[in-house]
Amino acid sequence: MKKMLLALLVILPFWSSNAFAYELEGGHYRNPTKLKYWIDSSVSNAGYAARAEYGSEAFDSSALIGTVKTSDPSAANYKWWASNTNAGEVVADTINYNVNWLGQVTACWSCTYDKSQIRIYLPSFKTLSWVQTRETAAHEVGHALGLDHEDRTKPSLMQSEGFLNNEYPQKDDWNGINAIY
Amino acid sequence: MKKRTLFGIITGLLVIVAAFSFQSKEGAKAAPNFYASESKILKEYNDVSELEKDSELIIKGKKLTETPYITRDGDMVSGFYSISDVEVKKVFKNANNEKVSKDITIKVLENGAYDEKTNTVFGSAGYQLMKKNQNYVLFLKKDSATGRYFVKGAVFGKVAIDSQDIEYGDKGHVKQYMKENVEKITKEVKKKYQ
């Protein structure tokens, strides 16, 4: 009995750190199974529409998340843009918004999300490999859904610096999604 | 009596409307909100020696002006940055022998912008804009297409040396490990370059 208790005490910290390693933004999408995304011509013209499509649907293998493409920008939750500005070492940015019943918008993280503005900065984005561009697109959608950066526990799609060189959400990312939704 | 009551009600309503109007005008003057966008960054830094190695230009400079560039989607901000004029006070490293010397003004892209419409400062990955007329040590790299410079590591290569403040993130949305690194780099820079 004592041995079992001792073993449990040794295992518990490791189990706990793995189960709750993900970091969360503190908010969640209002309609996670009915999300829509729209891609601006600035993204398509740069040849990255497929990356935005992949990123938008990267979490759709979960029953908790459902995403479809729309040609109506006003109906979209995720809106993808591309910029030719050299923003230095910033590759992509996500801003989440809440929309209240009056239609007023507020940029926030610890709130109920209705819209996400996702922008890729082409000068730095173009330096990435094919898998890194897909990873970045999925990473930004992870933020849109409410996942924060996770740099302590790897592998995670949500590491802020550098690349996993794998475009698929990892166990820690799924744990985060399951915790939010 | 009824006329007096009606007059009283109308006067009361006018006072309330005037009070709200005054309050909203005062509100516009309030300190700006800060919103940290979530950003994927190519390179983060753990200490000043890494920054020094990766930087083409290291200067001490004073921020003079800033011009915000904000892209909107209706009432939402979809993109932002600022171009700031920085007066060079001292050059510590100039790897490519650029024409940068004391008293010359260079243009620096800041990964943040003040949106007057919403009274909000947007900052990529928690970047806080440099304050006007304040001195900074900047770790920079040149954008050859535009001739302007950008800050290495977005938030890491800009250190305020006139104040004790750590200019990163805000109270509500801070990455602890990044804050620790920014604090460490700030201490190192103040010790070495001030």
Summary tags:
heterodimer, A: 181 residues, alpha/beta, six-stranded mixed beta sheet, 8 strands, B: 194 residues, alpha+beta, OB fold (Dihydrolipoamide Acetyltransferase, E2P), five-stranded mixed barrel, 27% helix, 38% strand
List the helices and strands and how they pair.
The complex is a heterodimer of chains A (181) and B (194).
Chain A lengths: L1 H18 L8 E2 L5 E5 L1 H5 L3 H8 L10 E3 L8 E6 L6 E10 L5 E3 L4 E2 L1 E7 H4 L4 H16 L25 H10 L1
Helix pairs in contact in A: 3-5
Chain B lengths: L1 H27 L4 E9 L6 H7 L2 E17 L2 E19 L10 E6 L1 E4 L4 E5 L10 E8 L6 E3 L6 E3 L15 H18 L1
Parallel strand pairs in B: 1-6, 4-8
Antiparallel strand pairs in B: 2-3, 2-7, 3-4, 5-6, 7-8, 7-9
Give a nutshell description of this structure.
The complex is a heterodimer of chains A (181) and B (194). With 181 residues, chain A is α/β, with parallel strands linked by helices.
Give a verbal description of the structure:
The complex is a heterodimer of chains A (181) and B (194). Chain A is an alpha/beta fold and 181 residues long. Chain A has helices at residues 2-19, 41-45, 49-56, 122-125, 130-145, 171-180; strands at 28-29, 35-39, 67-69, 78-83, 90-99, 105-107, 112-113, 115-121. Chain A has a six-stranded mixed beta sheet. In chain A, strands 1-7 form a two-stranded parallel sheet. Chain A is globular, with a radius of gyration of 18 Å. By secondary structure, chain B is of the alpha+beta class. Chain B has two domains: 1-30; 33-192, OB fold (Dihydrolipoamide Acetyltransferase, E2P) (Beta Barrel), CATH 2.40.50.120. Helices cover 27% and strands 38% of the residues of chain B. Chain B is built from three helices and nine strands; from the N terminus they run αβαββββββββα. In chain B, strands 2-3-4-8-7 form a five-stranded mixed beta barrel. Chain B has a three-stranded mixed beta sheet with strand order 1-6-5, with no helix packed on it. The N and C termini of chain B lie far apart (75 Å). The model of chain B has no long low-confidence stretch (mean pLDDT 87). Classes of the chains: A alpha/beta (181), B alpha+beta (194). Chains A and B meet through strand 4, strand 5, strand 8 and helix 5 of A and strand 1, strand 2, strand 3 and strand 6 of B.
